[in-house]
Amino acid sequence: MSLAPTERFSDRVADYVRFRPDYPDALLAWLRQAHGIGPDWKVADIGAGTGISSRMFLDGGHSVVAVEPNAAMRTAAIEWLGAEPGFSAMDGRAEATGLDDASVDLVSAAQAFHWFDQQAVKPEWQRILRPHGLVAVYWNSRRLSGSPFLEGYERLLDEYGLDYSSVSERYGDDAHMQRWFGDGLHGMARFPHAQRLDFDALRGRLLSSSYAPPAGHPRHAPMLAALRELFDATARDGKVDFDYDTRLFVGRPAA
């Protein structure tokens, strides 16, 4: 049976913390320069997970409330960021955050956006935003082609992933996001991003994915053997380039 979105990563938190990518500096710079989002804007990081996106805004001088329903991931975020000035975390869902009316300036929705009920979040986010507030939706989109490694990795996921096709199809393309924001779309951008991974990091990056079969599953050992073979065939100087396009959409969708 498929896991609920809020439960999918509970047994993958350690790998998620260590091996998931952050976001490029250009993302926050663009929000500042193109949309006037200054460090005095309070951020609600919705579906904050282990705090990767929250960290970006904290480093930029923002106060951040991380809203995350998965207890294991929320605990990891608190362990990592709990001592940071301006950081707090709470149990809440994208569609029912528990935040006060008109209490934040920016809603940040990063890698978890595709798991939300994308219609139900609109009135909720309108409720918690101040009148000038904006929504930023962004994620790291792994490149599927462009190198033997990237193309081999995609084939590996197609062969061994448990529900890879259904998960990958949840991500929105530009047209979907333009429709979601409608007339409230203020801008969109795309930035290159990458991780350079040795085999242990590549293995951890794979196992952090919700569709990777866990230890004990019949596909787990064959998947790791195929990963080792792919790495050995494509690594340069002991590492592979795990390339992304970071896609970013900003605006205020109508409820």
Short description:
By secondary structure, the protein is an alpha/beta fold.
Helix content: 25-40%
The shape is globular
* Beta-strand residue fraction: 15-25%
Q: How many domain regions?
A: 1
Q: List the total number of helices.
A: 10
CATH homologous superfamily heading: Vaccinia Virus protein VP39
Task: Describe the fold and architecture.
The chain has 255 residues and is α/β, with parallel strands linked by helices. It has one domain: Rossmann fold (3-Layer(aba) Sandwich). Helices cover 37% and strands 22% of the residues. The protein is built from ten helices and seven strands. A seven-stranded mixed β-sheet has the order 3-2-1-4-5-7-6. Strand 1 (43-46), helix 3 (52-59) and strand 2 form a beta-alpha-beta unit. Helix 1 crosses helix 9 (199-207) and helix 6 (148-160) runs antiparallel to helix 10. It is globular, with a radius of gyration of 18 Å. The model is unreliable at 1-10 (pLDDT under 50).
